[in-house]
Membrane protein YeaQ/YmgE (Transglycosylase-associated protein family)
Amino acid sequence: MALLVLIVLGATLGWLASILARTEAPGTILRQVALGMAVSVVAGEIANEGTMIGSLSFLSLGIALAATGVALVLYHAVARRSVKA
């Protein structure tokens, strides 16, 4: 159940990041959703002491949320920097 929650959290944050950044290219939107899902699952698993069976603690959920947000902000900073160059 924890794995499903983290996947949905990451996908939702990636989708919201694409809306906030006004991204219109389908490949870029999918890249942001995939990045959000991957970071959320990895950070949540590390914070939940390596287990995805059972429940997810609020601390793990918060860490996954923060890590996904930071990763998406960094992705947008690098993407905009490479477009300007």
